[in-house]
Amino acid sequence: MVTKSKIKKSSGWLGALTLALAISACSSSGGNGKAVESLDREAKGTLKIAYFNEQAFYMQYGNAFQAMFPNLELEVVSTESVFSAEDPVAEMEKIMAERQPDALYLTEEQYAALSGKGLLYDLDAVVKQDKFDLAAFHPSVIEMLKARGSGKLFGLSPSFSTQALFYNKGLFDKYGIPYPTNGMSWEEVLQLASRFPSKKEGEDALYGLSQSSQTTNPFELVRAIGEAKGLNYADVDAGTVSIDSPEWKAIFQEIIDGYKTGSLTMPSSGGGGMGGTMISAAGGGKAFSFGPDSMRFMSGQAAMTIDGPMLMNMMGVNSKMGGAVRSTVAVKEGGKGATKPMLSPIKDIDWDVVTVPVDPSQPDVAGGMSLDGVFSINAASENLSAAWEFLKYANGEQLAKTSAKSSPSLSARTAFKNEAEGKNIDAFYALKANSQAMLQTLPTGFAEDFAQVAGEQIKKVTEGAATLDDALKLIQTKGQSLLTEAKTKTVQP
Length: 493
What we know:
Blueprint (H helix, E strand, L loop, with lengths): L11 H11 L5 E2 L5 E2 L8 E7 L2 H15 L3 E7 L1 H5 L3 H12 L3 E4 L1 H9 L7 H6 L9 H10 L6 E2 L2 E3 L2 E5 H6 L11 H9 L12 E4 L8 H10 L5 E2 L4 E2 L4 H16 L15 E5 L5 E4 L1 H7 L3 E6 L1 H6 L2 H4 L4 E9 L2 E8 L7 E5 L9 E2 L3 E2 L2 E4 L6 H11 L2 H7 L6 E2 L20 E2 L1 H5 L6 H17 L5 H24 L2
Parallel strand pairs: 3-4, 3-5, 9-14, 18-22
Antiparallel strand pairs: 1-2, 5-20, 6-20, 7-19, 7-21, 8-14, 8-17, 10-11, 12-13, 12-15, 15-16
Helix pairs in contact: 4-5, 10-11, 11-18, 18-19
């Protein structure tokens, strides 16, 4: 319990009374019925914070927060076991029950599940009490937090993830093709990609559009375009799959045509041939790992790519790291993994970004937007004042200002966008989250299993081993079975 003086666990209620009498500032009761008092800088006590790594916590948050409240003892409750747990939410619940952390760092999925179970503190009242300015945040970040919290605010997120369309100005100039612009449709971008003379192999390989390093399945692009058009391939309430339709077929056909001609890169699955690339400066120092899909754009072998802010931070890495940049490339030799050092394939190219492609029916909406992590307060915490002070700091203006110069993440505070040497950083902030996609909840594991089936069929059609009509029928049939099975597992006690 945080009070004006050191309080033992056995005197928690006395400490609460002391705090209430000693502090005359205003207080407010949150949706959980507990008051949150103002906390002065001399307060003593212990604040437990659930975080995945103690060292990382102190580097990012703890040291500076400790300086603000020097008499406040911080205790980091490790959540490392959550990452290997079969049920991450159940593991987090176990940690909350056994260790009783006051504040928690959660994934978006954990945030949604725990808030739905009433385990997180409702911040709406204390936000109003402290006049904490939510208008300073990207509107979609607050929208996502409330959507995941069934309309209420149970946490705050200092950063978010989304993507933009990167393009190589030099390649567009070379072939006399106009640059992409903000708000282009998927069809327009795919047509731009098809105008480049594609070549799939060799050092002079060239693609119109390379997919993100996070994309590992050829169905992901199909799904993204369908989602932008407001299409769903599964209706959980009705228990039906509807992928074998004219609308979905048209998207499949367009993407498969791109894979066949080479204007689009087939996502790398990580198996065989060249794998990931580790970029490091001479003499050690920072190192970054990238898959072959992102490397195609950075090496000048793709005119465009759809990727996140980390790629933006890697462009021009040769000059940033003093020119002495080498890479270690993962290769397959005799069926065994190996590495081979070589000069970095990254080139200093003239590039910029525009918004990800959209659908004309929803021109201001982007898919794929998510929260990097959410800070919340345990609804059972007796240290609400200290926990709220920590949430305010972790999501505050000062830390956002500092992080804008050192972190590749996108700040949720729009006034502190990453510095990008004159590039169109606004492309990452211009669109809103797809609220329809946010509201769709699929049974655990179904989306992954469905994507695997669809991805395998896309590859077969691309290779000429199946027709698109037959592939869609098979995806429809297997997908329906997967949904039925997943729903059955979900309702089992």
